[in-house]
Write a structure and sequence with these properties.
Helix content is 39%, strand content 22%. The protein has helices at 37-56, 59-75, 77-88, 92-112, 151-163, 177-188, 203-212, 225-235, 260-272, 292-303, 324-339, 371-374, 390-397, 413-422, 455-460; strands spanning 6-8, 11-13, 16-21, 28-33, 119-121, 129-136, 139-143, 166-170, 196-198, 216-222, 241-245, 250-254, 282-288, 343-346, 361-364, 381-387, 402-403, 405-409, 427-430, 445-446, 449-450, 463-470. Strand 8, helix 6 (177-188) and strand 9 (196-198) form a beta-alpha-beta unit.
Length: 475
């Protein structure tokens, strides 16, 4: 049985009162405490007290503790995946893949802890030497989303800990159990008290407390653009470093020289993973006119093979949406598209299973003015828009205020380079829907956020540069 209390300064506390529902069945799978600003300040104080010893620890010792955490996550991967499916709804196969992905960040940053290197710069004087040190920024606040409740925790926490920072973490209210389970494993791995603190409860009060607390020097948030902007404003008075991974509206472009079958496979993977509830989900499918009909037919055939159901059942590829609000947004986008001329080619209805299950849907005849193109749907709707030229595709793809991820399929090497360069996004998948990797920098441009997570770039978010000049060295 996993812990269902909050972790502050090495102690588990708080009365579990807020129910966590299984979106597939409506059953209660656990309860967590409802804490607020007082506990948020207490967690920050604990992290501040722990910072001196943790940052002063040898890098190889921090690395060893992170490696122990990684080993425990892998040992418990089946149990963690089952918990994740129960609170979030994604199919068990996807949940297992997420646990492995979450573990990969801990493994990667266990190694990176040993590789925080400074610099020696050629001096401007013969009697002086110039050094640049990289030092941990301090206490880091992390606020994580519900769609990847395990991986988004480790993608923030592991590099912060590896850098020598201490962490206060607030998981999403819909899916806090995975975060608490990961924290329990971190404690078992030997992480010192106060190094990692996790609290649940009043999201607005907790977030505001950490934004205002001068002991918190960094805030990392993954979630909606609206909330990200609010947190950025709240951090201004204490001039924190802010890392934001916000909303997307990813274009998926199929050029007329593409392998259409491969593009259709890629579209299903990029669009319907986690029921379309991913920030890098393909939200707008642009298909060149010469291959449009062939691609739509191939897409419909593949979408028709998707199986909707409880994620614990064998063969299920599409679970429920997270809640009723998510269904409402899908329905609104669908209704607006149909009203303005789009045609439903498959799906388009509440699934017979009821609750928040929705049929995977393909729409044809979509135009850029429809809400489904202008806003991120976060659901299983695949809108197909026809285009004629490369220039038109790029103009349409870049016409939104966000720029997290983009995908395109084509085989002309000149066009591959041109399009990859001109897409206004932070990440590009060329002839592949697979972007996420623990060794690569994850993040966007425009209103999709600030900073990067993953890879060697990810640990830089938690480090400060200090310039040191050593004088009086003349012989």
């Amino acid at each position: 049985m996993w812990k269902t209390q909050c972790l502050i300064d090495g102690a588990w506390l708080g009365e579990p009162v807020d129910a966590i529902d299984d979106p597939a069945t409506g059953e209660i799978v656990g309860h967590v405490p409802r804490l607020g600003a007082v506990e948020a300040f207490a967690a920050a104080a604990a992290a501040d007290r722990a910072f001196r010893d943790w940052s002063g620890m040898l890098a190889k010792d921090r690395s060893r503790l992170l490696r122990s955490w990684f080993d425990l996550i892998l040992q418990q991967r089946q149990e963690l995946a089952a918990l994740l499916t129960a609170e979030q709804g994604k199919p068990l196969a996807e949940a297992l893949a997420e646990i492995d992905y979450a573990a990969s960040f801990v493994e990667y940053y266990a190694d990176e802890a040993r590789r925080v290197y400074g610099e020696t710069i050629p001096s401007h004087r013969t009697d002086a030497r110039i050094l640049v040190w990289k030092q941990p920024i301090g206490v880091c606040a992390a606020i994580t989303p519900w769609n990847f409740p395990a991986a988004m925790v480790t993608r923030k926490v592991a590099p912060a800990l590896a850098a020598g920072c201490t962490v206060v973490l607030k998981p999403a209210p819909e899916t806090p159990l995975s975060a608490l389970a990961l924290a329990e494993l971190a404690v078992r791995a030997g992480l010192p008290a106060g190094t990692l603190n996790v609290i649940t409860g009043d999201a607005a009060a907790i977030g505001r407390a950490w934004c205002e607390d001068v002991r918190v020097r960094s805030l990392s948030f993954t979630g909606s653009t609206e909330v990200g902007k609010l947190l950025m404003r709240q951090c201004a008075d204490t001039v924190k470093r802010v890392s934001l991974e916000l909303g997307g509206n990813a274009p998926f472009i199929v050029f007329d020289d593409a392998d259409v079958a491969a593009a259709a496979d890629g579209a299903v993977a990029a669009k319907f993973r986690n029921m379309g509830q991913t920030c890098i989900c393909a939200n707008r499918l642009f298909v060149q006119e010469r291959v449009h009909d062939e691609f739509v037919a191939a897409l419909i055939e593949r979408v028709g093979r998707l199986r909707v159901g409880d994620g614990r059942e064998a063969g299920v590829t599409q679970g429920p949406l997270i809640n009723a609000a998510a269904v409402t947004k899908v329905e609104e986008h669908l209704a607006d598209a149909v009203k303005h001329g789009a045609r439903i080619r498959c799906g388009g209805q509440h699934h017979p299973l009821g609750r928040t299950f929705f049929e995977p849907t393909v729409l044809e005849g979509v135009t850029p003015e429809m809400r489904i193109c202008r806003e991120e749907t976060f659901g299983p709707l695949a809108p197909v828009i026809m285009f004629s030229s490369e220039e038109e595709a790029l103009t349409l793809a870049n016409s939104v205020s966000t720029g997290l991820a983009g995908y395109f399929y084509g085989r002309d090497i000149g066009r591959v380079i041109r399009v990859a360069e001109r897409l206004q996004v932070g990440m590009v998948g060329v002839n592949t829907p697979a972007l996420s990797n623990e060794a690569a920098p994850f993040g966007g441009v425009k209103e999709s956020g600030l900073g990067r997570e993953g890879g060697r770039h990810g640990i830089e978010e938690f480090l400060e540069l200090k310039y040191v000049v050593l004088g009086g060295l003349g012989g």
